[in-house]
Amino acid sequence: MTRPAPRSPARQAAALMLLLLTSGCSRLIMFNTVVPRDEGVVRVVHDAAYAPGRRGMIDVYAPRGASGGPARPIIVFLYGGSWRSGTKDGYGFVGRAFAARGFVVAIPDYRLVPEVRYPAFVEDGAAAVRWVRAHAGEWGGDPSRIVLVGHSAGAYNAAMLAYDPRWLGPDRSAIRGFAGLAGPYDFDPFDGPIAAAAFQGAAEARDTQPVTHVAPGAPPALLATGDKDTTVRPANSESLAARLTQVGTPASLRRYPRVGHVGILTAIAKPWRDRAPVVDDVAAFAASVTAPR
């Protein structure tokens, strides 16, 4: 009887991560022990407080030696989880992936449903961006060149910060671009339990939608989605791209074949990068919009 060939370490890591995801472990805390890490990256900040409370913590990743060289552009990454789950401790792979491409990467936690509802999670994102701007020089980051990146509910939060001027005020001038991965941007009425729980009590449903706030001069966008995503339909990205184009803002729409809602996120990790060029696309976009003017 012929025995199957042993799996490579990368395939073993991929199988375990998929098991964690499909078993409901969306926090991905096990990631750092099972997935190969990008080299040349340092976590320069761990559990710094950008706001009061246990959910007001932030981590920062940077290329090794970044503080001794020219100021680098910053990525602020906001994770998903239906506004009701998630922790920055599970997303070190995102920080390392983009720090290895030359960016300083900040990953904050934020308050979740049912403790809070809209707009608290957007307000937390704004507070995190302000904290990053205030401290960027400590780790070699440029506070005037920030790209907001998010997945799923985190992409919603990031889009609201990029396009609705209420949240960041004058700090919005530092936002050079927005990259959304499988984000919901145009999804009212709130007839599903997830959105209903997160946006209960909002006075005007349309006012909560990123597409509503797009105006001339809005930051350019990369809107990526998977054609197998049945959690957040690609129509959300298409709607936001159309609105941005309408007001004259560059918007690149990427639709990855055979990729689902989770797959677009796990493609950032080393074992899955051949499934979709998410890291390449986001890094190239962030580099282009933060290039010296």
What does this structure look like?
It is a single chain. Helices cover 31% and strands 20% of the residues. The protein is built from ten helices and eight strands. Strand 1 and strand 2 (57-63) form a beta hairpin. Helix 4 crosses helix 5 (153-163).
What are the main properties of this structure?
single chain; 293 residues; alpha/beta; 8-stranded mixed beta sheet; 10 helices
Layout of SSEs?
Elements: H1 9-22, H2 31-34, E1 41-49, E2 57-63, E3 72-78, H3 92-99, E4 104-108, H4 120-135, E5 141-151, H5 153-163, H6 165-168, E6 175-181, H7 193-199, E7 221-226, H8 235-246, E8 251-256, H9 263-266, H10 278-289
Parallel strand pairs: 3-4, 3-5, 5-6, 6-7, 7-8
Antiparallel strand pairs: 1-2, 2-4
Helix pairs in contact: 4-5
Distance between the termini: 65 Å
Rg is 18 Å
Strand content is 15-25%
Average residue pLDDT: 91
The major β-sheet equals: 8 strands, mixed
Strand arrangement within the widest β-sheet reads 1-2-4-3-5-6-7-8
Concise structural overview:
With 293 residues, the chain is of the alpha/beta class.
